[in-house]
Design a protein that fits this description.
Bound molecules: zinc ion
Order of helices and strands: EHEEEEEEEHHE
Shape: globular
Strand order of the largest sheet: 2-3-4-7-8
Helix content: 10-25%
Structural class: alpha+beta
Number of helices: 3
Oligomer: single chain
Amino acid sequence: MIFRIIAYGDPVLKKVCEEVPENYKNLQELIDNMYETMYNANGVGLAAPQIGELLRLFIIDSGALDEEREDLEPIKKVFINPIILKRKGKDFAYNEGCLSIPDVREDIIRPPAILVEYYDEKGELIEEAFDGVNARIIQHECDHLDGRLFTDYITPLQKQMLKKQLRDISKGWVKVDYPMRFPVSKRKRA
Ligand code: ZN
């Protein structure tokens, strides 16, 4: 099942998510549907709050990234209740995008390497190091679980320049080729 992806401006995206309980029913179904939703939108990562589930869970498939990079070892993984234990290295800028913020990309500065603790879909606790693009996607998705978007990192000037575009997205005045849910009903532009 393909979910609607919640657009920028919806307060749901600003909420801090709850841990996925141990006995959470339909976990596999939720994960399968999230993959379907992410692939349909040509994304490489999707966090549960982006489909309206306020749970600490996200999926990644960096193999779906249509760029060849030396620092990319593709991963396809589910992260449940993840915690970034360590961040390492010299911060660098990378052009980020988000399925909730269509057609907006900005250079965001983050550290290049992380150590993450998370549960996989079988309930196994894993501690794993990531770097390069994978570390970047994981940090972006982890932020979603705490109600943070990459637009929270941009400078006031960048934000000012994006103001209209972000407003248009929050009003549904944007053309996207995947199903989205906008905070206010779609209206004709005055
Ligand atoms: Zn995102």
